[in-house]
Write a structure and sequence with these properties.
The chain is mainly beta. It is about 5% helix and about 40% strand. The protein has a six-stranded antiparallel sheet, with no helix packed on it. A five-stranded antiparallel sheet has the order 1-2-11-6-9. A hairpin with a 2-residue loop joins strand 7 and strand 8. The radius of gyration is 17 Å and the shape is elongated. It starts with a helix and ends in a 6-residue tail after the last strand.
Length: about 150
């Protein structure tokens, strides 16, 4: 799999008369933020979270972020799609796409979705606090769609 910088470099390259491109969709709003300290304390937030989305007196606790989205139209069967998460504060402990566990790691994190997404999708991300600081989702979450001849693995 090409790394993100290599995929972005492919944007608008012509290859033997066929367009090869990269399209980015930002998944900014609406995310549901559920702090596990108070199960009734769900709120809608932007990702990346803005300063006003995080209370000054917020105590560190496990937090789950959930986002529903539809599969974009025009995606062909040979196009490749990645979910890219650039940054978070805390420890990523769980990532699920449509209820299915995904590999986790450190940011930036990329997961190929090409074969596992549906017309209606859900991302669920659980982050635990680290270093006594509250959890914060302060990076971008995007769908990176690679089209054209180079999309075929």
């Amino acid at each position: 799999m090409p790394i993100a910088s290599e995929r972005h470099a492919m944007f608008s390259i012509q290859s033997q008369g066929h367009f090869i491109g990269m399209h980015t969709i930002r998944l900014r709003y609406p995310w549901t933020k559920q702090r596990h300290q108070d199960e009734s304390d769900a709120s809608r937030v932007n990702v990346p979270e803005r300063d006003e989305d995080v209370a000054d007196d917020e105590s560190p606790c496990a937090t789950t972020y959930t986002r529903n989205f539809n599969r974009p139209t025009g995606i062909e069967s040979d196009d490749r799609v990645w979910l890219r998460i650039t940054r978070w504060q805390g420890t990523l402990v769980s990532l699920r796409i449509n209820g299915q566990p995904q590999p986790i790691g450190t940011p930036p994190l990329e997961i190929e979705l090409s074969k596992q997404w549906a017309p209606h999708n859900q991302i669920e991300i659980q982050i635990d606090p680290a270093g006594g600081n509250p959890v914060r989702f302060d990076g971008d979450v995007t769908l990176e769609i690679q089209t054209g001849d180079d999309a075929v693995a």
